[in-house]
Amino acid sequence: MTPAGNGLVRAILTFLEDQRLEPTPVNYTFAYRVMSDPAGALAREVARRTDGGFRLSSGEVEMLGNAIEAGIRSPGPADPVPPPSGSAPAAAPDAERAAETQRQVAGFESMVSAIHNETRDFGRDLAASADALSAVPGTDVVSAIAELARITASMRARVDIAETRLAQATREASALRQELAVAHEDARRDPLTELPNRRAFESASTDRDDGPFHVALCDVDHFKSVNDQYGHPVGDRVLKAIAATLDRECAGHLVARYGGEEFALLIGGVDRATAFDMLERARRAVGARRYRLRETDTVIEGVTMSAGLVTLRPGETIVDGVGRADQLLYAAKRGGRDQMVGETG
User: In terms of pTM, does the model score above 0.85?
Assistant: First the structure.
């Protein structure tokens, strides 16, 4: 799948999640039309209605979806200002997975509609056939049996057709669910390190009985110098190695790439001291790694990491915890880097 396609699918899944909309064919189609033409009239109308943090209702989705063919109303004074002519063009619809999923949605909707029509016609024809059978004279047994056999054969053929279409629709629905599941997973995973991304981390559940929960924010020290001296491909390999080290040393807990050279951890089921010791071991393991460049046999060492660790308070969200951990992370940076600062008290 092309990067543009990945971006579109992720944008669609993000839109559905932000609006608390189930990934049904109707909602997916609506989101596809919004996100594939972000400068279009439908996207502008959605932006106007959701301005200020409001979410679309299912009724609004249905109404706006029905209005697509008729044309969205002209923008009013409260509509967002369209981007200037020199801005980047809107993302074109993807020609691969996103487009294929869109075709599956359209095909699935058409198939279900056909089955519905077939079922309706089936009932009507069955009633008409019953009336015709009742009109056969009671003494004409041979004619009645012949008419009954004809009706039975006709109904059996109709049932076979309906069953075939239903089986096909079921396969299409299953393929669509799998496609959406893959896209949903892609939207929550960092492609470089294959760790969960920031979105997945911030939406993790702490409404469980395996607490307490601790949040850590880690940052690779002087990472810009690695990129500047050895190039971004080498920097990417270093980040992947650090991600693998953190994931191994903190197995059983959530490790995510929070952005750039930052990593976030959600540690649950242990006390603060145990969480601190675990993260400190992981931090030291990161600093002890040596990286040998395949191209020149050059050895890179001394890549260290600073971290801040807090314990979530009652009623506090993961995002709240990240904010407090970030303050401790900067305290570690100001204190000379290559160290971890945990809260006390």
Answer: no
